[in-house]
Amino acid sequence: MYKLIKQEGRAKRGEFHTVHGVIQTPVFMNVGTVAAIKGAVSTQDLYEIKTQVELSNTYHLHVRTGDKLIKQFGGLHKFMVWNKPILTDSGGFQVFSLAGLRKIKEEGVYFNSHIDGHKIFMGPEESMQIQSNLASTIAMAFDECPSSVAERKYIQASVERTTRWLHRCKKEMSRLNALEDTINKKQMLFGINQGGTFEDIRIEHAKIISELDMDGYAIGGLAVGESHSEMYRIIEETVPYLPVDKPTYLMGVGTPANILEAVERGVDFFDCVYPSRNGRHGHLYTRKGKINLFNVKYELDEKPIEEGCQCPACRTYSRAYIRHLLKAKEMLGMRLCVLHNLYFYNTMMEEIRQALDEGRFIEYKKAKLEGFLENDKPNITSF
Fold first, then answer.
1. Which residues bind Zn(2+) (predicted)?
2. Positions in the chain whose pLDDT score sits under 50
3. I want to staple 335 with a disulfide (CB 3.0 to 4.6 A). Which of 40, 190, 260, 352 is the partner?
4. Residue 309 assigned to a binding site
5. What are the structural domains of the chain?
């Protein structure tokens, strides 16, 4: 159940009550594709860096280790020793990302595994069955994420098929939740809005799926090649046609600036691989923008990544030491950088929620964005 606490313009401050605890929104979900965040981040670390929701990937867990094995362990929560909410995506994004390895039909999608090439079929029912085996808190409907450069005719047909698949997902989820051996009989299901950058298709699809009374609604198919301004335009046009009394999830987005802009437009849930991926390459988020620890100017820098930060890296280690670890290809360097970036994101979401609570989000957003630009200002002494 979603409780809308207050709004500032379109920005929403809410609570989402689940069988695995209450999620304070807006929230950034930390991406652990195969039930672990890349960079040697443990489940215990997730608690320390203020993670509310962990996100895992249906397709990847199905092809490697297997959802049936995970069910034997009692589901993902017991398997990875995590007692807070987990969201599993549906495998639909792999329809987009593995374009060279799949064929889309009305019944579902035929894949060749990216690991060993063996044939896989996944449709709405199969995706729901896998996610039920994983016993996640929130399951995502199976959809197609069309390319941002696809023609209008293709996107229209794709969206219509995604709607038909959503009906099948909802029916199958209801059946699975009623079975005796289902681990999480209160598993929730989010529908996904698609439509590329065609706002009229997006709006019509939002209207149609809103009538299905899902547990939440996602906006998919963005951050896949379109410009930031196009993305913001689509969010702005689409969100008003999704239920305000249900969570709205912007899939796969994004940078801290993207998140601030989307919160202002009414988005509650976010996920993105940026903080962990960038961390593994020494690119770190700070209040003044991103820094690259591989730069030689940090070689003798005794300061933490960010002064005042309470993440496990900043409480103990210097930029110079972490840079040394990265240069030496020592895994600890990657781990510390990923922990810092995820802590930065989770802390920023805390600040956003507090600003909304206090009715000063727009003021907070403006100051935050101005701060991010500080490292990008030209150094006039070098001219």
1. 309, 311, 314, 340
2. 377-383
3. 40
4. yes
5. 2-272 (3.20.20.105), 279-371 (no CATH)
